[in-house]
Amino acid sequence: MATSAATVQRRVAQLCRDGAASSDSRELRAAVLAELRQTIAFDAYAWLLTDPETKVGTAPLAEVPDLAALPRLIRLKYTTTLNRWTALPRGQCATLAAATGGDLSSTPLWRNLLAGYGVTDVASVVFADQFGCWGFLDLWRCGHTEGSGTITSCMTRSTRPASTS
Q1: Does 96 map to a domain?
Q2: Contacts of residue 133, Cβ cutoff 8 Å, sequence gap at least 6
Q3: How many structural domains does the chain have?
Q4: In sequence order, which residues have a C-beta less than 8 Å from that of residue 128 and are 6 or more positions away?
Q5: Structural domain contains residue 141
């Protein structure tokens, strides 16, 4: 049985409190992803930290079908406006399927990369506070039949302590 979003939210908050003094952001992000997997089905991810002022991505942590394509993925993310981390409201999740009205092929990111991996949706969330945007996370789904409303509500609830505190 899947762990509830509320339980994952508490665990993520605790991980963030415990890891706040750590200098290893990759370890903390990997632990948060492990918690998210308890309630959200996803097949791949890309989690970048960003400079709060410029919103330029740094320190990617990714598990994607082809790591050699990561620079291409990042370039496509920078050239798209749809669900871009610079435009998403903090503390909310958006999906590619919802943003395109189900027509994934309308976005170059999907047409030029994600379609080749069988990606059927991408859930995106921005991590920001009063100082600016400090990261974003994309969770990729391949072939899942669960509606986008489920993933967005679970991801929003599960990441709330980290994205709005």
Answers
A1: yes
A2: 50, 52, 55, 85, 86, 90, 126, 127
A3: 1
A4: 52, 90, 91, 134, 163
A5: yes
Is the distance from CB of 55 to CB of 132 less than 8 angstroms?
yes
* Contact in structure between 27 and 61 (CB atoms under 8 Å): no
Collapsed DSSP state (helix, strand, coil) of residue 113: coil
Residue 116: which CATH number?
A: 3.30.450.80
The series of mean pLDDT values per 10 residues for the chain, 165 residues long, is 68 72 79 85 91 89 91 89 87 88 93 94 89 90 63 52 48
pTM higher than 0.85, yes or no? no
Q: Which residue range forms the structural domain that includes residue 131? A: 41-164
Under a CB-based contact definition with an 8 Å cutoff, are residues 134 and 58 in contact?
A: no
Rg of the chain taking only CA atoms, in angstroms = 15
Asked, for residue 58, whether it belongs to a domain, the answer is: yes
pLDDT tens column, 121-152: 999 998 888 888 889 999 999 986 555 445 55
Q: Which pair of structure tokens corresponds to residue 51? A: 């400079």
Kindly report the average pLDDT of the chain as a whole number: 81
Structure-block tokens of residue 130? 């009063």
The reply to whether 123 falls in a domain is yes
